[in-house]
Write a structure and sequence with these properties.
The protein has 660 residues and is α+β, with helices and mostly antiparallel strands. It has helices spanning 6-19, 21-34, 65-77, 93-112, 115-129, 180-183, 195-201, 218-228, 297-322, 367-384, 401-410, 413-440, 476-479, 484-497, 503-510, 515-522, 524-538, 554-565, 568-571, 575-605, 653-659, and strands at residues 40-43, 48-51, 131-139, 145-147, 156-157, 160-166, 171-173, 186-193, 237-244, 254-259, 262-268, 280-284, 326-328, 358-360, 445-449, 457-461. The radius of gyration is 36 Å and the shape is flat. The N and C termini lie far apart (99 Å).
Length: 660
Amino acid sequence: MPRLSPLVVRERYDAGIKAIRDELNDYWMNHSFFEGHQWLWFNPIASRVEELPDDPERIQAVVNRMRADTRIILSKALQRDLTFEVPPSQPDSANIRAAKISESVLDSVKHTHNWESLRSRFAHGMWKGGYSALCIEWDPNAGRVVAPGENPDMTIKEGDTVEAALTPPEFVVEPGHVTPETDAMYWMRLQLLPPKVLQDMYDMEEPPAPDATSGRSSFQNKLLYEHTNSGNEAELTVVLTYYHRPCPEFEDGAVAVMVGDEFVSGPKKWPFPFRDRLNLIVGTETDNETKWTGSTPMTAARPIQVALNLAWSNLLEHLESTANARLIVASSTVDMVDEFTTLPGEVLQVPDGALAPTYMSPPQLPGWVQGFPQQLQTQLDDILGVHDISRGRAPANIESGYGLSILAEQDSTPIGRLVQETARSFGALSELVLQTYAEKVKEPREASVRTPDMPTVAYRWSGKDLKNQTRVIVPADAIMPRSKAEQMELANNMLQVGFVQSPEQWLQIAEVPGAKGLLRAINPDASKARRENHDLSIIEDRNKIPVPADFDDHSVHIMAHNTFRKSAEYEQLTQEQRDNVDVHIQGHETMAAEQAGKSRAGAAIDPLLATTPTGDGRPTLPPEALPAAPAGGPALPAGAGADAVSGLGGLPSELLEGLL
């Protein structure tokens, strides 16, 4: 079997960089424009981006429209949190339970590994460079401590996956493939770290040379500092991590870390259970039919941004040179200027034959010159797909939420592509995470699941509990941005035609912010019933199922539980769990019947007893709805209504005194 050498890694890295040279140049230019460095030029001799020299006599304005439009697009694309669906491979109870555990594990990983920040970096890289990537690694020194040691080197941890989002300059793949995840045999990750950090990390005798920053221009180093969040004047060293999946050349695969011209770690065996693909997922903003890289509208917007800066610079220079109103006076009347006052109607005496002082109006620029920047801004917005509706400004005569939603839908083409590619990429990443857990996690762990309006639930699981239920779907519709005005309009229309029958249905359709808290305040019984549905779906022991309380509104609970029994989630429950739901509903039915009997018994004694509030939540009747008093019992005074019920518990004072 051939042996992997640093020379081979260096040659393959150089070949990979050469194949994407144009894409990297576009990325650095787009990144520079996004950061506000827009007076640039590409030096073909040095093959690098450089700043134009400053001219103190000329204005170099930067109207960073690209950054503003990018923030609008990405804020909409990242509006909704990731959600995961793991469809069971077989409709039996064991696979259904394993699929639920897989969903719970992913939900826990999303929070503990901060996947939303990972998603933001992934989307930024894809938008600025046309493509970006997600990768997964297995770190045996991550996770919780299993066996503490006398020092950190002796401490044993449970191990965990480490996920990362990579921008175009941070990785290369084997050239010549359109689908690198499954076709390419290797890829390399590039990191820039301070030499001292690398010396401590890999126990090196001396700090490595800062080859990432030495020999580069000051502007290139400035971009590197901004890109890596390193402090100014920091020295950085290139670290290459080489991943080669198992193949005839390397039967066990290879993973090696190289600093300079030597390996500081490895080569080691391929650590992942999947052998037919790389531990890498590439997402593209716009597909390239012949290459694995993509393209982005940011590249097409750069020339327009340059023209916009030039137009504003030209206008500002004209403003600086011609905006002052100048006073013209004859030489013989110069001394009169010092005698001018602010007195209205002042009389000015000018010598006979002398030119009276007069102001010279500044020259007016042609209308097309003044309107040219606005035309450029419109062109740039068209390229990036951002218009007034994207910024929250409604066009004239469009006031309805439905009309605004139609315009917003037509305006969100770049957002739709970003959302779809993000959903696909994170679905693939989730599958790799679950496959790795299924093989690596031998001892039980806990996955904390946080569900709105539900208590945090901790699941005990290990790799064998997943039972190969590792197919994951991130629904694009679930994370696609939605117009709040559209949702509100839809909820109101459904309320008017009668499709919506309860406040919780309206809140759910309208997607009102803080709807869970509002539901608890408006209808606490419906909120409690939903929590019970959640508990009933995960508990199999009948002794642990929720027990109906005597203060519950049983009609509301039964309606909520019946809605749950008509859902797909209920159909996937085991027979024991379905029986638990039925038993719980029977409990509500029994307690509702008991309450009705108590109400009838109280009304038989005296109809006014039906108006008293009770601790078990029985509904009370207003005095107007009371039946006639029984023979021999006290009657309500003639004409008495709700105002007559003024005593404790709604009873008239006279009756209250008689009862007490």
